[in-house]
Amino acid sequence: MEQLTGTFAVKKGLAQMLKGGVIMDVVTAEHARIAEDAGACAVMALERVPADIRVQGGVARMSDPDLIESIMAAVSIPVMAKCRIGHFVEAQILEAIGVDYIDESEVLTPADEAHHIYKHDFKVPFVCGCRNLGEALRRIGEGAAMIRTKGEAGTGDVVEAVRHARSVLGEIRRLQNKPDEELMSYAKELGAPFELVKEVKELGRLPVVNFAAGGVATPADAALMMQLGVDGVFVGSGIFKSGDPAKRAAAIVKAVTHYNDPGILAEVSRNLGEAMVGINVSGMDEAERIAGRGW
Amino acid sequence: MKIGVLALQGDFAEHITMLKRLGVEAVEVRLPVHLDGLDGLIIPGGESTTIGKLSVDFGLIEPLRDFGRQQAVWGTCAGAIFLSKDARRSQPLLGLMDITVERNAFGRQVDSFEADLDIPELGEGGAYHAVFIRAPIIESVSNPARILSAVSDGRIVAAQQGKLLATSFHPELTDDDRFHRYFLTLTK
Fold it and tell me: If you measure CA to CA, which chain A residue comes closest to B89?
């Protein structure tokens, strides 16, 4: 019996298993265990959470394989890790380590200002960020098996996550109302592959799982993104930069499951301690924003 | 007929789509009260630790056990782990089926695979094309549970015990609805 590995169905399939769940940024094995105990469906292993990358500056790169492996050894849930946009050698290294998903992430400093990784070449699946439908479909065209809206990482301000989710989902709704003869020029306008534009019209959604990311800090933020129509939520700095990470992590997990039940949302929002100190995105300089990275 | 799909986390929407395609009423189950009036329940793929924890948090463990003692329940991947008696590590389990499972037994995501299986119970239609995602194996099956299918090296990937079904793979990720139809015959 032949066993086929690395097919698009199994790459996309793992993201389908993550749906309705919370993927948490962790920087140590101890964090990873807290995240797993709180009910995270996966963790993102990295050296610094986005809020610290913002403060410390410098070039943000792929994490040390030792750190990633220590996190892989600590938990039974899938472990993701980030590589720089266009840095296909970092991606090769992450694949060699055996991470379950690679995030080709704007949170790290881009290695290529014109091209993303050709992700079909890899057995390991990729998740990529987007701000709109065109960007999402370009990434899927390159082989991304999962999409996340970018938001503005490390701010604790959900406004950009909302903007990007509304943009992607709104463009899909507009696409569904277009007659077929308008799809080619719409594909041109979006800068997206025609075949994928056609597929999205037929499906009424992206052909891969779509999570929200970038600025989610509270259970209410997470439920807001779910009600807007995403499949799940990434929480980066929002958990381990807060006063009581274990409690907040568990509350956000519950909020994503019961996103449509305000009674439960009220219950899980109580007594969580300090939320992460936020940065108001509207007061930021354009140069400080990282969502613009990606082409 | 009304079938519930445990909707705490995972690919419950894919199961619901498949059930609706078969003309069955399908509802999401997040709280014990949602089990009322169901003729069967599917526990989807996802992360078994997440599904287990949320089941504990929302008081679902005992109601799910009571349901499974009388009605048909099918677990795919994480759902199969959740139905088992033993998953070789400490995590909440329903313990409804006399099977021992080993999580992520084929390896990590790069080892996830597709393969054709021989499943006589599904009847006509030839080999069953199955999708395995960081899949568990059913390490051992004890009476009254029985083996439904194994991969070529003999590792067990599907088992049945009366009205209870466990599969390591994900029929909800394919277009082949034979496994869902087989499950529906158990709800009668």
Answer: A76
Q: Which domain holds residue B158?
A: 2-186
| pLDDT, tens digit (0-9, with 9 covering 90-100), for A267-278 | 999 999 998 888
**Overall domain count for chain B:** 1
Output the CA angle A191-A102-B13, nearest 5 degrees: 75
Look up residue B14 and give its DSSP letter: H
Domain of residue B26, CATH code: 3.40.50.880
Tokens matching residue A219 = 């259970």
Tell me how far apart the 2 most distant CA atoms of chain A are, in Å. Answer: 59
Residue A175 parent element (H or E): helix A159-176
User: Under a CB-based contact definition with an 8 Å cutoff, are residues A251 and A269 in contact?
Assistant: yes
Report yes or no: B30 at the A interface, CB cutoff 8 Å. yes
Dist CA A7 CA B131 (whole Å): 10
Examine the predicted complex and report whether its ipTM is higher than 0.95: yes
A244-262 confidence digits (pLDDT tens): 999 999 999 999 999 999 9
Residue of A170, A135, A157, A89 lying closest to A292 (CA atoms) = A135
Q: C-alpha angle with apex A241: A237 to A245, nearest 5 degrees?
A: 105
pLDDT tens, A85-101? 999 999 999 999 999 99
Q: Which residues contact A138 (CB under 8 A, 6 or more apart)?
A: A116, A191, A192, A193
pTM of the prediction? 0.97
Per the residue annotation, which of B34, B102, B172, B180 is the catalytic one? Answer: B172
DSSP-derived 3-state class of residue B16: helix
Rounded to the nearest 5 percent, the helix, strand and coil shares of chain B are 30, 30, 40
Res. A122: pLDDT tops 70: yes
Cis, bond preceding A262 (omega within 30 deg of 0)? no
Q: Quickly list DSSP for A69-119.
A: HHHHHH-SS-EEEEEETT-HHHHHHHHHHT-SEEEEETTSPPS-SS----G
Subunit contact B49:A9, Cβ cutoff 8 A: no
Q: A178 catalytic, yes or no?
A: no
